Amino acid sequence: MQIKRSTTTTMPSPTSPPVQNDADYFDFRAMERVPESHEWTGPQEYEHPVVAGHELEQDVVPVVDMRDDDDDAVAAAAARAAEEWGAFLLVGHGVPGELLARVEDQAARLFALPVTDKARAARRPGGGGSGYGVPQYLLRYPKRMWAEGYTFPAAAIRSEFRRVWPDAGDDYISFCAAMDEFHVELRALGRKLLAMFFQALGLAAAGGDDDDTERKILDTLTATMHLNMYPKCPDPERAVGLAAHTDSGFFTFIMQSPVPGLQLLRRRPSERWVTVPGVAGALVVVVGDLFHVLTNGRFHSVLHRAVVNRERDRISLPYFLGPPPHMKVAPLAAAVAPGRKAEYRAVTWPEYMTMRETTFGTSLSALTLIRVAPEEET
Fold it and tell me: What residues contact 231, with CB distance under 8 A and at least 6 apart?
């Protein structure tokens, strides 16, 4: 993920990342006030902007219903939402509501474990970002987020969580069964949604290299899962759930509990944060940077963040889909308008992540580093 800031706001400057230790695993529920380590104050992008009443009526996060019998209409609706918002609520997707409830329950059980149990699966240096605790990029900030999380490859659920439950007992079996089933459902849904996006881009009729690229992308999608717990907070106006960022891959499904907390940045006609409602059974779809590249900027990656709640915990489960590490991602020919040039050069996901490190904590987007300069277009 990339931490970016709005051009009209400020945020604390990042510092060199401290060493992660036991102090990073503290009991949020024991806090009667927001401690200094987690207190964000002053003018910053996490404040809620004042929005005029007439703008509120326009700021309704789009909903795409996959139950519509007209596939072209569904694809067009998804494409329009990806163009205008960079995100939308997806309903009628076919993932059983019972499974979503079971996954949320298992995530809550995981986070309710004693710190000593969760810390057995702490993030390890050189571990590829997997594990429990504070991600390294967030450790660069002088203040901490009001959240705890666990990142893991979707294809390695059982081996990853043996670190939490080394005895592989009933809790381990129930947790892994729910996450495995969720992975199977979401990966299949990801392929279906991706095919719809390609349909909206006209790839079905394009043929040639785009057709080959489409098949390769559909067949090689990789998935990473992240569990987030945002505990209830005694003073939510002074805490941050998750700093504003864009996702780096193709797109993300976010399963969230009914407690609202996810916000999207709308840039037109003026900048303001819009809260995504907690709709039962719905999944949030968020466009990532590499899909922004693939569509030559037509589907734009959206800046989003998480805020916290005074009364209730909030759980979310982002399911990130992207290309395999070796695949070069570049604008598809069908996404480049006649007479125009591709705006981005080819890049692999690991290369792009390395570039984002250089822009971390600044107002610069890593997308600018792979833009084709005007003189290169000749």
Answer: 28, 29, 146, 147, 148, 308, 313
